[in-house]
Amino acid sequence: MASIAPAPYRPERVSPPGNTIRDILEDIDMSQAELARRMGRPTNKINQIIQGKKAITADTALELESVLGLPASFWMNREQNYQLALSQLAQLKDQEKACEIAKEFPCAEMAKLGWIEKKASWLEKYQELLRFFASAKLDALKAAVELAPSFRKATGKQACHKALAVWLRKGVLEAKNIETAEFSRQKVCEDMESFRSLTLRGASGLTNDLVSHSASLGIAVVFIPHLKNTYVGGAAYWVGNMPVVQLSYRWKRHDILWFNFFHELAHILLHPRQETYLDDFTDDHDEHEKQANEFAADTLISHSSWEAFCEQGTFSSVDVQHFAESIGISESNVAGRLLREGRILPADAHRFFISLAVK
């Protein structure tokens, strides 16, 4: 959801507190020299304050209160607001110079999805990105953008690092809104059958029940729409002490997303929490990815069960239905694995697939 916070006040010009002093002196017909004499200050110092070249200190504010009558707090606030306005104008100039970088982010997609407000100018888009990332400067995103090199691509496609940073950031924001129990690796490992049984509930079991069940075990599961040029199917990382499994709708099939979930869960259970795993689920020979693929495949369908099923050599609709029922898993997951291994044709597998609506 886009930010609904009011836009900060950005004055086009700023007025130093010296202008107020000058106006008061004119009203009471007092010269700067007289004011300086009554305050016990050199005239040139008072002139510097009036011109905005010298700041009003607490001592000066108290002296102005004694001579001009307005409380010292008024003068301190006037000075503070003036300095803030100067900083805001300087910041705006810096942003105008740097806003070209916004062109490297998927601003149009983000606005369409409601992640940021739709803006016309690149300066406004840049400012929306700052709010989205809760960052003072997009240069500060370097650490987030550099997560992308861990995203190895077997397909040869080059993912856009800034789009990946956006996709991950949205996942983090959504994950922080999920109330989870304390994470226990042991409890999760003992509860695999409950996860598997959710595959039998169709689309609802994946997009609704999986989220709530995972939260009860301390894991935040978030579904974030796929962004162009990210090629990402899932991610696993930690937000503080909370593990997060983030899935995209790059593929809209029930069986693929379930495999992706167990793949990312493997990263949470088996691999260092200091790393962020970004996956496209192509043929990656990295050891962690191989382990995650094996975990996902064997959790959904045990190695021994799968070998026994494949040995029979027939994979009719009835065979798929009976096998899925015997191991307590969705038929779509069985058909999906048969298709991946080239044991049935797409037309034969398609009848079992469950399509998921993209959010």
Comma- or semicolon-separated keywords:
single chain, 359 residues, 434 Repressor (Amino-terminal Domain), 4 domains, 4 strands, elongated
Summarize the structure.
The chain has 18 helices and four strands.
What does this 3D model show about the protein?
This protein is mainly alpha-helical and 359 residues long. The protein has 4 domains: 17-98, 434 Repressor (Amino-terminal Domain); 100-143, no CATH class; 149-298, no CATH class; 303-350. It is built from 18 helices and 4 strands. It has helices at 17-28, 32-39, 43-50, 58-68, 72-98, 107-112, 122-133, 142-145, 161-176, 185-190, 192-197, 202-216, 254-270, 287-300, 303-311, 317-327, 331-340, 346-350; strands at 220-223, 234-239, 242-247, 277-279. It has a 4-stranded mixed beta sheet, with helices on both faces. A hairpin with a 2-residue loop joins strand 2 and strand 3 (242-247). Helix 13 (254-270) crosses helix 14. The radius of gyration is 31 Å and the shape is elongated. The two termini are 13 Å apart.
Task: Extract low-pLDDT stretches.
Answer: 1-6, 145-155
Give the overall form. elongated
The side-by-side strand order for the widest beta sheet comes to 1-3-2-4
Percent strand equals: 5-15%
In quaternary terms, these chains amount to single chain
The helix/strand class is mainly alpha
**Strand segment tally:** 4
How much helix is in the residues? 40-55%
Mean pLDDT metric: 89
Q: What gyration radius follows from the Cα positions, in whole Å?
A: 31 Å
Give the biggest sheet: 4 strands, mixed
SSE order, one letter for each helix or strand: HHHHHHHHHHHHEEEHEHHHHH
Number of domains: 4
Number of helices: 18
Q: Whole-Å distance between the termini?
A: 13 Å
